[in-house]
Amino acid sequence: MDRQRIVIVANGFFPLPIPMGHITAAIRQHGFEPEIIPFDLRNKWDAPTYARAIARHVRAAYHRSGRKVHVIGTSMGGIAGLYAILFLDISQMVQTFVAAGAPFDGSPVAAKFSRVAPLAGCLAAGQLTKGSWVLHAIKVTPLPAGPRYISLGGLSDRTCPIPTHELAGAENHLWSFSHRDIMFKSWMHGMIADLLLD
Questions:
Q1: Distance CA 11, CA 184 (A)
Q2: Which one of 36, 102, 183, 198 has the largest count of C-beta atoms within 10 Å of its C-beta?
């Protein structure tokens, strides 16, 4: 068991906080110390804002432990996590980046809400829509050397349908999961933690 190896988890869009004990337990059973990015509605409304929060947590964990950290980003958390690595100077602090159900090529569900979401101050729906400036910036920016990059697509995921999860330069895997499984099923995070041991 290596409790000093920290796994930072950045969850996807959800307008209310959800219990996270099942996720932390699954990761801890594999010998890692999980840290969940605390719920903050401002992070859910805007991917770059969320990316800055992720970068702060990565820096704090890295300086506290003196070791590179793993980052798991689910759905929007995967977009924001990769944005942080690409543009916020944390790539040398990250050992592995895992995106699960992150729509790097745009989400059809986000596209449906992109016209009305700004009325509530939510920019994220538009940012997760195919062709957005956030997804374009990610697409045209090479992955920095250092971290191992993994992207997981779900065979039953309608929010991030195959192949929208694919990320150039990453290890792209297809697993049997739905978008809901990413946040609410502990077995998902247990399997992801297994990847970190490879």
A1: 11
A2: 102
